[in-house]
Amino acid sequence: MPTSHDGTAPARTPSEPLAEAPRGTTLPGGEYIRERFDDGKRDLTRPEAPEPLGVPIYDNHTHLEIKDGDDFPYWRALDAAEAAGVAGVIQVGGDVESSEWSAALAAQDRRVLAAVALHPNEAPGYAAAGTLPDALATIDALAAQPRVRAVGETGLDFFRTGDDGRRAQHESFEAHIDIAKRHGIALQIHDRDAHDEVVETLLRVGAPETTVFHCFSGDEALARTAAEHGWYLSFAGTVTFSSAKNLHAALAVADRSRILVETDAPFLTPTPHRGRPNSPYLTPLTVRSMAERLGMDADELAALTAENTVRAYGSWD
User: Fold this and answer.
1) d(Cα 218, Cα 125) in Å, to the nearest integer?
2) CA 296 – CA 97 distance, rounded (Å)
3) How far apart are CA 304 and CA 259, in angstroms?
4) Phi/psi class of residue 8: alpha, beta or left (left: φ > 0; alpha: ψ in -120 to 50)?
5) CB-based contacts of 125: which residues, under 8 Å, 6+ apart?
6) Which of 3, 114, 220, 302 lies at 20 to 30 Å from 136 by C-alpha?
């Protein structure tokens, strides 16, 4: 079955009927539109919920449209997150289909805001098919919706896409930057093996006022560059890994007024559940790990990241 940029496969074929959305809701494609690839080696047991923090927090990047393991659709994921003290999430698109799904969910659930974009690894496919301009026009239209608060995830990825796809990635990235600036909303960047090129692009064309490095994967030097320009760093479960020395060093020097937290669920599950299905309800684990490394009280960091998140995206109310 064909896979998407994040190793997922479509959850249904066009000949299959759309799933009936629960609670009277309607989403394009149903409860899921993709399923994470399973090689049969992962533990798909869903982790137990952590103790909630003393103050509400936000997951600023998640993919609720992707099924991973058991039946845990978006509404169950959001209920579990709310019970764990996660007050809201940013549901993120990576192509036209998932962006439309994300915007639709945000329009009907108070716990959700949306980000819409073409993932950099999807851009070459749209370009090859001659549909990149139309796809970007759809993203532009979605970005005008009131509960779409970010353009993302967009950026550059030189890990999965080779030299032949870089031109399309750059074209798409620059178009997304323009969309974010015209609509006055945040930009969520996907940056993999392309740190220098991402920074060069932002400085050359001008970064949006709110620019977020989603699932920050850089080092201390990139964290200092981000602090210099007022860019946000969003840390995922990878920061809890003992081997992630670059992230620990980056966190130590990051501008604390620009620190965010995310799950990137269903991927990047934090310690001690690495490899198992991820979901927004596990966000407190990452906050606690970050607080320990920063020598902060966990509730203090939770309040700080919540304040930063609302500054970046606006209120969920």
Assistant:
1) 27
2) 40
3) 8
4) beta
5) none
6) 3
Looking at residue 121, what DSSP letter applies?
T
Helices in 20-165 by DSSP H: which ranges? 74-83, 96-108, 123-129, 132-142
Q: How far is CA 62 from CA 3, 11, 201, 232, 236, in A?
A: 18, 18, 25, 17, 10
Q: Dump pLDDT digits (tens) for 269-308.
A: 999 999 999 999 999 999 999 999 999 999 999 999 999 9
pLDDT in tens, 91-137: 999 999 999 999 999 999 999 999 999 999 999 999 999 999 999 99
What is the side-by-side order of every strand in the sheet holding 8-10? 8-10, 34-36, 66-67
Length of the chain: 317
Q: What are phi and psi of 190, to 5 degrees?
A: -100, 120
pTM over 0.85: yes
How far, in Å, CA of 309 to CA of 246, rounded?
Answer: 23
Helices (H) and strands (E) in the chain, counts: 10, 11
SS (H, E, C) 178-198: HHHHHHCCEEEEEEECCHHHH
Structure tokens at 112: 């959700």
